[in-house]
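Look over what follows to help learners.
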Amino acid sequence: MNKQDVRDDRARSHPSLPEGYHCAITWGIPTEYGGMTNALLHRSRAFIQEAGVPVDVLTFAWSLDYGDIRCELEAAGELIPGLRLRNLWEELGQLTESQLASAKPGKNVVGEFSAIGGAEESTDETSGGVLRRRVRYASDGKTVLQVDYFRTDGTVVASDRRDVSVRGSEGGRLVTLCGLDGRPVASWNQIWPLYLFWLDCVVEGRESFMIVDSKSTANFMTRYRRDNVVTLHLVHNSHMASGALPPYGELSPTRRYVFERLSSFDSVVFLTENQKKDVDLVFDKPQNTCVIPNSRSLPTVSDPEAGHTPELGIILGSLTGRKRLDHAIRAVAEAGKSSDVGYKLEIYGQGPEQAALLKLIDSIGMGDHVALRGYSIDARQEFERASFTLLTSKLEGQGLVLIEAMSAGCIPISYDVPYGPADIIQDGVNGFLVKAGDIPAMSERIRQLSTMGEEDLKDMRRAAVARAHAFNDEVVVSKWGAAMRDAIERKLWAMPVPPVAKVSS
């Protein structure tokens, strides 16, 4: 088979997506998750529903709760037939002897394996009365020095020791994979090779497509290069440091490692054209980048102007400093000072800024007007009764929450921040954009919305719904199919052509 034949065979596809094993790569699925995980799960369901392609979500975080998480996701309709949640630590203990024997030990490994002894100070973590993990601490009782993971039969499957240099003091690392008898079969001086070994076990040599969602997994996925695996890194948020001005500002410290290695992925996917444009300027137009927005399953709204409480705003977002929700609260307070309208704001989400926000609400006398509603899996439905939503973030990847609000006829009022809002909102047509950090301007737009004529307001709500539907599942899944085929093309043409054997006459 020549190179062209191979290329045609590998590009043979389902009408939307190339044929093969499809998976999403993320660190973990917490019980209460935010926008990135929501987008990952929604995209995976769209692959199933629009293209008929099963999807596995591959996770690496340790947890005893994955069974409960699966049940909750299924009950909420987030996990559907064809969508599986898989975890490294669950599956390591299920590997066969032949799979374990395929692990390639690291070179010049420093340190020797020894399981945590019974006399050592440690903590056991069990599930159903079965030991699953044992953790050894330093003398301070806080610093983790070793973690041993167990199969259900009590044998050690993996050990992660972190005091190789001087026992009892953090420094140096030895990660060991053990056979069915609990004896070591491979060791490395870092954890990443263990992650990549498991991925090889999952793939089983199949033609595969991996969408890497979280920035923490993207770091080690830069090293996962296989001829039969196409890797696509989806950048969910801005790559810029907080406060940095694009395109030439400082990179986010959590993004730097990956952005210095963009060519390690077969495709790097941005949510907006503006972010891709900035990356092209700084990184000399890398050939493996493209734009695919997040999508939504959007209902058809026949009467989008109905049911919205004129003075009510709804915000969905984590209570973190990056979201600047104090700006939203102050904007609503300022709007009410110069108006007879009793504006109200409800914020759905959790996070470390909750206490500070409650203190602010009390200090400016907004206790009867602003409510923190906590986390709710059904919070998106609240947009149907709100007149407006506010986005005050320092940075955004796309602003998926704006699309969700607009699909219900809820008008977005957003800071014009990198990167998403300006790609979604046409100022004065389907929402409002104001200068980032300008609380008075946001306050004025809240008042303007409440004083608009009835027909103008109806037109704006209809325009918001129409704009939201540009991000429907069918359109976006087809974009993913095109990106995967382009990645196949680049990967195949980059492969060396095997020499043709000479046949003697």
User: Anything to note?
Assistant: The two ends are 22 Å apart (CA to CA). Residues 309-471 form a domain with the Rossmann fold fold (CATH 3.40.50.2000). The chain has three domains: 3-93+196-291, 107-188, 309-471.
